[in-house]
């Protein structure tokens, strides 16, 4: 692959960074002796790393400590920061990227029109990787094994992960789990994502037939626009500080073991174990959680919506979420400080027990009362907040059919003229609704996740965020 450098002509020649290059990997027509060009692609993405064909950085000594320094790894290798490796259709096996800290992004992406298949992607101790458009499944492997499909791992000896983007990938244990028994689900379903590190982005991925969906211990990160469909564990987990989960959809929980599943779950850890620490600055915005879509779904069970039972949860914002579940816990925080629960819609999936689901901000399991928490502008089938929680401009749903467009088909947009319209407070209200429609559209903010609006009003394309 020829790398072209650009220069600026003037009184002197000023060298500029080399132009980004593109390389190709083709498991069907590639060769271990190829040069990575479109005409002579490499054969295996793992061979590219094993042969040292990516110039990167690693720590100068191990075990890693915060005082460790980065030094060049594979100096002079053809692939460098800013480059893209395009993967063609075929089976690429398991990919391990170990101790590769790029000074700028390196992209691994499906070539346009191609569907590269992998059994797993594991980035252990690295930085500045973009993974785009891959299909990852345990069923591609010659021997099926249960594992985590994409693992972004900080390692105590090798070092942390940071600044990694995984987007537009498809993950599944098997593409069709309709013949799985409950025992098959319990024994065979893979976890989707396990994400450690800092400044991680998991965006616009589709997960199907998994155990736990997207589990994030990372801090200062973004989980956005993902679909988790058919899962046995938790749909989303957020254990790190200052991470945003927005516009994700989680649906169809499978009851196959004793796990108490949540659409989203968090808990704290500290010196005294679970519940003795804090999780700070999490934003849950515009997510949709549906217990089940098909009443005849096999292995159907109940689902806690947003379940946060072992605080303390500090400085959280929970806004514009839609929770449709057959459980008591629609949105629950046990142990909270400075948290805002605003403009959410929580409805019961059916009329049977358990339920109806509530919005609840209450005492920590060790008895500490919530401090400076607000529950405002919500629509829910029940509310159960501790004394001292400021609850205002909320409405208990009594007749979903008289309030929403089509609750039987999960359309919880407001009907014109209902009491929820213009009944909210503008204090700290999100600037956009669940559909990114600007608020307000009338005299005041509407209650719940959706703002009633005229048909000609269009969503805002770029999201300015909420509170």
Explain how this protein is built.
- By secondary structure, the chain is mainly beta.
- The protein is built from two helices and 44 strands.
- The chain has a 21-stranded parallel sheet that branches. It has a twelve-stranded parallel sheet with strand order 7-9-11-14-17-20-23-29-33-37-40-42, with no helix packed on it. The protein has a three-stranded parallel sheet with strand order 27-31-35, with no helix packed on it.
- It starts with a strand and ends in a 53-residue tail after the last strand.
Please tally the β strands and state the result.
44
**Span between termini:** 48 Å
What is the 3D shape?
A: globular
Tally of helical segments: 2
> What kind of sheet is the major sheet?
21 strands, parallel
Radius of gyration: 24 Å
Helix content: under 10%
Q: Whole-number average pLDDT?
A: 94
Strand content: 35-45%
Uncertain stretches: 1-17
How would you classify the helix and strand content by structural class?
mainly beta
